[in-house]
Design a protein that fits this description.
By secondary structure, the protein is mainly beta. It has 2 helices and 13 strands. It has 2 domains: about 100 residues, no CATH class; about 60 residues, SH3 type barrels (Roll), CATH 2.30.30.40. The strands form 2 sheets. The chain has a 9-stranded antiparallel sheet, with no helix packed on it. Strands 10-11-12-13 form a 4-stranded antiparallel sheet, with no helix packed on it.
Amino acid sequence: MHPFHSQWSLWSLCGLVFCLTACGGTPEPSGFEDNPIKTSWTQSELDKMDVYAIAGDYYEIQIGIKGKELTGIYRDPQAPNGEGCRFFFEGVIGTENPIEVQCYDPTNTKASFKGFFKILGDAMIIQLSELPSDNCTGEFTDKIGRSVVLDTKKEWSAIRMIQHPTNLHEKPILESTKLEEALKRGTVVAVLEQRNTWLRIEILDGNETTGWISQHGLYPLIEF
């Protein structure tokens, strides 16, 4: 290359570098934009979102949630040994609020009936299509419904009920230590973890006892 052309090319390159520096540095790639955090939604966007329900202890109601699956039980806290108003429920969480659930008592063959859970943050209003028994308050079927408030948030993936006498184990193997007498039919448990056919559960009797049981000892669900 001729010396003149080499010198001219060098001066051109230096000029370009000086221009970029003086003008504020290397330009941003075209199309680059900061993505602001979304803090508001239109009503149509909200209508497409799943209802946000919270798993936990609502004093008289215990709820477990796994994905969109909701299970739980209502037990009259004033009744001795839960002999008063009691019903199990299960449903699918979607965009509709209230959430429609199927209510029934796993220990008998009475047909299930519909319930509706209106989620209001950490509270909910429950309305039933019929009373589970004569021991239940009429609030469940009136226009206002029965209100409950979250007492303690929990990591419960499901609420289930024992169908057959089931041993509570220290570890998820049959040979592991049995922690206490076999759980009796009708005992309500909350599922904390699952490993194959084994479930780590908490017995919902107020003592917060935990251990492992075989899922084969539980009443089957009707919805899932």
